[in-house]
């Protein structure tokens, strides 16, 4: 039996008897991702985070001298220890920059090594911060002691929580790199984490200056 269909331009076929047939519709099965869409959305997230820290800084600015007869920042803060902790976080920012340079060179191994070093600096920062909190609480200077300590713990612990999530994100991304390599999606995730990590460094510089350095002033 002879073929009685004529192929259409859209890929469908029409019978010779003249009956009408709806053309077929084809869908491209690829990821639809607007250019720079993720980075723009992440910038919006960072701006919302800025508002959170701005509120915490404002609260500390109002309550930072309300000691309620308790210890002051000059009596509690160990500046050499805090300076060491600041060094850990700033070095982690530098090592993350090296990871991004290796990513630009498409060097997967180098990227993973510098990310691991960044994570170790982040863990060192958190360890010192937890030690500081434990020491303050053991001396009776917990967050419930005064408005000053409440605002201090709220601000510093919120930053520490962000660093914790950043480390979890970094570890997850290292597994993704090991499984899929430096694909476009992973490069985009590395760039987002880079912005987040450097943002935390900037916030910590504000904490170190506004809370610790000014806190030891009479």
CATH topology of one domain: Four Helix Bundle (Hemerythrin (Met), subunit A)
* Strand/helix succession: EEHHHHHH
Distance between the termini: 102 Å
> What fraction, in percent, of the residue positions are helical?
over 70%
* The CATH homology group name of one domain: Cytochrome c oxidase, subunit III, four-helix bundle
Low-confidence stretches: 1-11
Tell me, briefly, the overall form: elongated
From the alpha-carbon coordinates, what is the Rg to the nearest angstrom?
27 Å
The structure class reads: mainly alpha
**Cross-sheet strand order for the largest sheet:** 1-2
Number of strands: 2
The CATH class of one domain turns out to be: Mainly Alpha
What is the mean predicted local confidence, pLDDT? 88
Gist?
By secondary structure, the chain is mostly helical.
Q: Which labels suit this protein?
A:
218 residues; Four Helix Bundle (Hemerythrin (Met), subunit A); two-stranded antiparallel ribbon; 6 helices; elongated; Cyt_c_oxidase_su3-like_sf; cell membrane; transport
Structural commentary:
With 218 residues, the chain is mainly α. It has a domain at 80-209: Four Helix Bundle (Hemerythrin (Met), subunit A) (Up-down Bundle). It has six helices and two strands. It has helices spanning 37-63, 73-76, 79-104, 108-138, 147-180, 184-215; strands spanning 5-7, 13-15. Strands 1-2 form a two-stranded antiparallel sheet. Helix 1 runs antiparallel to helix 5 (147-180). The longest helix is centred in the last third of the chain and has 34 residues, at 147-180. The radius of gyration is 27 Å and the shape is elongated. It starts with a strand and ends with a helix. Mean pLDDT is 88; it is low at 1-11.
